[in-house]
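**Entry details**
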Amino acid sequence: MPLGRLFFVDGEDRSFLFLFTSHFFERYVERLLKSSRQEMGCMVNDVVKYFFLRNHHIMSRKPELEGSIKGLCEDGIFLGDLLSGDTGLVKTYLSRDELKVNQYTEYFEAMMSGIVSDMFMSRNRHTMTDEEEAELSDEHYSTFVWREFLFSRNNPIWNELFVDCLTFRKEHLEEYRKISDMFEIIADNRRNACC
């Protein structure tokens, strides 16, 4: 069996090391490209390069199950096992098309947060602090401003992602709002528990 790949990422709470298995890359090809690596006639290294060229924003998220990991990237969600406090074995992949409403809502919120962070950094030339995030103007959360920012960046992957996320939200607006409110309550509870 071919070897997987390592990837280091800054997570919600801490930095994290992801070990991507070859099984993950097989699922990525099947579920995103709707093909198999053998049908495409490519090597595992080609799939790995393709994945990392398309997915520059890889984030870890708090998993629902103890001993598991969850991460997000431009193309979808990945899941696996926690090996230690800061290391996870990435086993499988879900494309955006396969996500349930609650998963897509979490995905949407994380990606839009990524847009806000990128927009802040491009305008201010430094990473946003928690204090600066709390003081952001409503402009940073405007879909019109996001669209303008993303198109000015000329990144077709993020432009597609933005349109897909807005389409999802429009099609599932009521469910999206309920789940988004629930995520906000959970985040507030976690912040209050830490203090």
Summary: The domain at 5-98 is CATH 3.30.2310 (YaeB-like fold).
